Request: fold
Amino acid sequence: MIIVMQQGALQSQVEDVVKRVESLGYKVHLSRGEARTIIGIIGADEHILQPGTFEAMDGVEKTMRVMQPFRIASRDFTHQDSIVSVDGVQIGGQKIVVMAGPCSVESREMILETAHAVKEAGASILRGGAFKPRSSPYSFQGLGEEGLRYLAEAREQTGLPIITEVMSADEIELVCDYADILQVGARNTQNYSLLKVLGKQSKPVMLKRGMSSTIQELLMSAEYILSGGNMQVMVCERGIRTFETATRFTFDVNAVPVLKELSHLPVVADTAHGTGKWSLVNPVTRAAVAAGADAIMVEVHPNPASAWSDGAQSLTLERFAQLMRDLRPVAQAVGRTL
Reply:
């Protein structure tokens, strides 16, 4: 449920409504527009909470039920684009944020070399996997805490915030000790026990779309985190499984504007997984930016031919620098910066 305040409502009237909501045991999310303030109620059972509870209060224009099943993630909840802030980097604003780095952290030297190179080319966030979910139990599973330490050192040297994957609720505390953003991978999109715990901690979360998930299912998964009280959530299109075999997955460029239309959450485009081929990353990334993505995530490796995972879709340091040069005019064309 949302409460729409009257145009020109006093700050004291807004505060009175907030206190009333909180006295009933619910949390609030304030959205202040140029004309009106909208108060979103988090955790409310709309079958029990009645509109009349608030409509008699001074300054309240009306109350509205959120029609989408994903209540807090919905545009009905707030019309303003949400911005996730991480150490001075704002995801969801005018600037398109670039997250770049290797699929997995393989060594200290490799992650440090990559971190310095992607920062010099214009990336704002360093990505790298310390824990890797793999289809085969015999494939490289990541360096674990050792990899997290290398990522933290790379942040120390470059100033780039870190995003890395968390695979289970048991790992959250450890990963939070090192990372700035927690990534939920495609295989865990509907791991609801993990999502519930992520909603109770304060680190930003990037939730990837499952390889066979609908857009509604992705937003319902985001709702698990949001309803727990963590409003620092981004959703990521990373390609879905279709009948097509020419690419690893089918990057659903439609999902970018659809998510922007349905939800206020920042939208990230992972074009490396979405294509599976380094030669396609540049053109598909440009398409994602043109479609309205707030951030992009690409895999970058000093020597993709020797990468321990996902080498075929990884850009060399030089190709990543070229991608950044190619993206700038596209971003400018759609009124954004890079």
Notes: The first strand starts at residue 2 and ends at 5.
